[in-house]
Structure formats: structure tokens, C-alpha cells
Design a protein that fits this description.
Blueprint: H1 2-13, H2 26-32, H3 45-50, H4 62-91, H5 94-118, H6 122-137, H7 146-149, H8 159-165, E1 173-176, E2 180-183, H9 184-193, H10 204-221, H11 226-231, H12 235-251, H13 266-271
Antiparallel strand pairs: 1-2
């Protein structure tokens, strides 16, 4: 019961609801640069309701999801998350920002190792394990990314990606208050990732602090790109397509198959981490 209670609050507090977190190393950026920089705009909500032929099969709860997106973007982000992100980026020294990000990411490194193992990426499993050991010791509990300095590149893999590789479908698209866009598969994956060492050792206050800080620096990364959301004809559809494109990008390790479908702005993908 305590674990369920903690997970519920994690869902409420986690505010990385714009796109989720993605790994943005040079390989990924090069792959994204191959895509076009135009989102195909979908019909505004009024047209969606009026046109019985338009249905997004991925999003059976669109009417509810749209209302929740409006709450996330126009209330939670506007009055809470964005002001915190602006203060974080403008007043916290850059070395401190880097140290905070390194520390939190290091806590997730064993999860990357396990998911790499489950996906059969044995070399990456060893690298992730080595990164955690080195950064947790020589790197002062992860504050300094010593492993990266010696050439051990981070390989982010989560349980949602692991299930995707195993052939598990997405399930419905969901917009969760304070949590943001996800799918049933990715939401379940996030829950499992939170149960992996050392994250399961964190008590409720520490879990809230960890997820809250991560949400703030993730949002700070996107301040310069938020204009694309505000200027889009349908911000909800834009965010949904960003989510699916970013998900596909991560599942295929930065090299998604080329499809003749709508694609999102490459600059936006470059910035989400």
C-alpha cells in the first residue's frame, strides 16, 4: 500500500509532461537531422468533433486528453513549472546544473543496464554498469560524469522500450495530470523502472525531490522551443506527434525507419533530454 501511495504521488508531481526525456547524444542528433522540420497539422478540435471520419485510433480518449493537456500546459506549466525552470536556468550556476543532472541520471543508470540486458545489448549493459560504478565512486556519487570523460557513453534504455522491442503494443495514448503524455505501455514501464535499484530505496520525500528536480531541468531545456507549441495550429496534436516521434526515435536507438508520414521539427527533438 505504501508503494502504491508513493507511485501515485510520483505521477502527480512528475511534470516532465511536454515530451518525456530523451537521450540527445551526437548520434541521435545526426539521425534526427535527416528528418524534415515540418509537422503536418491535424484538424482543430472543433473540426474533429464535426467530422465523423476523423479518428486517431491511437487516442480513443482524445476528448478527455485534450482537457487534461489544457490543464497541464495552461495551468501547471504556466504557473508552476515554467517559473521554476526559468529560475533554475537563470540563477543556478552552470556547474551546479550539470552536477544535479549527473547525480539524478546516475541513479537511473542501473535501470539502463538492466533494460539493455533484457534487450540483448550486452555491450551496453557492461558500459552502463561500469558507468554507475565509476561515477558513484570516483565521480562523487554521480555529481561528476567521470565515465563520460574516459569514453564510456551513456545508453539510456527504459522498460517501456524493452516492452516495445519484445513486441508489446502501446495501448491507448493518455494525458495524465502533472505527468503528461504517455501510453499504457510506457506508463507501466515507468512504474517498473521506479522499482529498480537504487530508486526503490528512496522514500517518499526523496522520490518527490528527485522527480521534481528532473522535471524542472527538463522543462528548462525546452524554454527556447516552447514557441513551437504556442504557434502550432493545434498544440495537443503537436505534442502527441512529438511524443510518438520521440518514442520511435528512442526505440530504434536514434535511427528510426524512414516513413512517409508526418514528422516533427528536428530542433525540438534535439532539445528534449
Amino acid at each position: 500500500m505504501k508503494k502504491q501511495f508513493r507511485q501515485f504521488f510520483l505521477l502527480v508531481v512528475l511534470a516532465g509532461f511536454i515530451t518525456g526525456c530523451a537521450n540527445t547524444n551526437e548520434q541521435q542528433q545526426a539521425a534526427v537531422n535527416q528528418s524534415s522540420n515540418q509537422v503536418v497539422e491535424a484538424q482543430p478540435v472543433d473540426n474533429v468533433e464535426a467530422d465523423d471520419e476523423y479518428r486517431d485510433e491511437r487516442d480513443p480518449f482524445e476528448n478527455v486528453n485534450r482537457k487534461l493537456w489544457d490543464f497541464n500546459w495552461n495551468v501547471l506549466d504556466k504557473y508552476i513549472l515554467r517559473p521554476l525552470a526559468v529560475g533554475y536556468s537563470e540563477y543556478l550556476p552552470k556547474p551546479a546544473q550539470t552536477g544535479v543532472r549527473n547525480f539524478i541520471t546516475n541513479l537511473e543508470e542501473p535501470g539502463y543496464a538492466l533494460n539493455n540486458l533484457l534487450q540483448g545489448k550486452f555491450s551496453n549493459t557492461g558500459v552502463s554498469t561500469g558507468r554507475f560504478v565509476i561515477n558513484s565512486t570516483v565521480g562523487l556519487l554521480g555529481l561528476i560524469d567521470v565515465a563520460d570523460a574516459i569514453g564510456l557513453e551513456r545508453h539510456k534504455e527504459d522498460f517501456g522500450q524493452t516492452m516495445a522491442v519484445a513486441g508489446v503494443g502501446n495501448g491507448p495514448f493518455l494525458m495524465i495530470p502533472g505527468y503528461g503524455p504517455t501510453t499504457v505501455r510506457d506508463g507501466a514501464g515507468d512504474y517498473v523502472d521506479g522499482l529498480i535499484y537504487p530508486l526503490y530505496l528512496l522514500d517518499l520525500p526523496m522520490s518527490l525531490l528527485k522527480t521534481g528536480v528532473k522535471a524542472v531541468y527538463t522543462r528548462a531545456d525546452l524554454i527556447e522551443q516552447e514557441g513551437m507549441i504556442n504557434s502550432s495550429a493545434d498544440s495537443y496534436v503537436f505534442i502527441k506527434e512529438v511524443y510518438y516521434q520521440n518514442q520511435n526515435f528512442k526505440i530504434h536507438d536514434g535511427n528510426p525507419p524512414i516513413e512517409e508520414e508526418e514528422e516533427i521539427d528536428e530542433e525540438f527533438l534535439d532539445e528534449i533530454d
